[in-house]
Design goal:
102 residues; alpha+beta; two-stranded antiparallel sheet; two-stranded antiparallel ribbon; 5 helices; elongated
């Protein structure tokens, strides 16, 4: 895919996508090809190792989806337990100074 196609499909900032692709290239998972044309373009594709990485990533994603309700329940239980043990005041989604000292 071309860089801008990836950017549109992922809904990610240009900077974050560029940094991530460079790291994936460094790790051997992605090939990046720069074409020095008028309107330069960069194409990206998975290496053989990148293709082999799809299976464990898909398995992890499926596990997360399968356990989403349990994860949400655990978070709610944790938050409730913390609220009962340490009353925390929230204002506009931020903890107060007192809450940060806990």
């Amino acid at each position: 895919m071309r860089f801008n196609e990836l950017k549109r499909n992922l809904g990610i900032s240009q900077r974050m996508l560029s940094l991530t692709l460079k790291e994936l290239e460094r790790d051997g998972l992605v090939n990046r090809t720069y074409h020095p044309t008028i309107s330069p373009k960069v194409e990206c594709n998975l290496t053989d190792m990148g293709v082999s990485f799809r299976e464990p990533v898909n398995a992890l994603g499926n596990w997360a989806l399968d356990n989403l309700a349990k994860i949400d329940g655990a978070r709610e239980a944790y938050d409730e337990k913390r609220a009962n043990n340490y009353p925390v005041q929230y204002k506009s989604g931020r903890r107060t100074k007192a809450a940060l000292c806990i």
